[in-house]
Specification:
15 strands, mainly beta, binds calcium ion, four-stranded antiparallel beta sheet, globular
Length: 247
């Protein structure tokens, strides 16, 4: 992922990505000689607002942050030395929250921020195929009213529960992610909310979005795309709307 720091006068004409201010990389890939293990970091990305702001103690960190997906990340890339990568080829996938900052040169997402991945490292999930962020929820309000801190939505379209590739989206509470003691890694059972696909091969979570207030209750709502859904006929596809609150 290439980062350019803004400025109205800078973003004109054309800029080569080679002159980006920083390049954010995912976890290592294994070489071609070891069987094409790769993560495809940057397949999805989104601005994540300012998740690590600390509201009550005056020590606010004012940088806006990032969420980035690497849906083809494989188990061996986490567990084996780069030169071997001898494990199976399950594409578990991962997503990374990266705090904002004045980065330069090449930086690594897994050492900068927080990693999200399935708890089962041998199950193909393609987690991180889609990502977005918005203040969907706060931990102190069971009605889902936001707490001012962005939360993360991470799609996993191949995630399998009771049938292949139902897919779905995991919501991780920003409050949970930012709460001390800081954790560098979250797994799917720690998610605040799971929005699971209805049927096998729905591929729910192929796309996700937050931020729109569809029902005008002041809180962002969640959209989950499932292109394999048969709701409207064979492979009609569907887009699910999950409102932050409803009567
Ligand atoms: Ca921040
Ligand atoms: Ca929140
Ligand atoms: Ca709403």
């Amino acid at each position: 992922m290439f980062v350019f720091y803004g400025g109205a006068s800078r973003f004109t004409a054309s800029i080569s990505l080679a002159s980006a201010d920083a390049v954010v990389l995912g976890e290592h890939s294994c070489g071609l000689s070891t069987g094409h293990r790769y993560g495809r970091f940057g397949y999805s990305l989104a601005g994540a607002g300012n998740l690590d702001v600390t509201p009550d103690d005056g020590s606010d960190v004012e940088t806006d942050d990032l969420v980035i997906g690497a849906p083809y990340l494989q188990t061996c890339m986490l567990t084996d030395p780069p030169e071997t990568c001898t494990c199976g080829s399950a594409e578990v996938g991962a997503a990374y929250w990266v705090p904002g900052g004045s980065y330069s040169g090449m930086v690594n997402a897994s050492t900068l921020g927080v990693t999200f991945r399935p708890s089962d490292l041998y199950l193909r999930a393609l987690m991180g195929w889609s990502v977005d962020a918005g203040d969907i929820t706060g931990t102190e309000d069971e009605l889902g009213v936001g707490d001012g801190r962005p939360d993360l939505v991470i799609g996993a379209p191949w995630y399998t529960i009771a049938g292949a590739a139902r897919g779905g989206a995991f919501v991780f509470s920003g409050d949970q992610v930012a709460s001390p003691p800081p954790s560098s890694s979250f797994t799917t059972p720690m998610a605040h909310l799971w929005l699971g696909g209805e049927d096998p091969y729905d591929y729910a979570g192929w796309s996700v979005a937050t931020g729109g207030d569809l029902n005008q209750d002041g809180e962002p709502d969640i959209l989950v795309g499932a292109f394999g859904s048969d709701r409207g006929g064979f492979l009609s596809g569907a887009a699910y709307v999950v409102l932050s609150s409803h009567d």
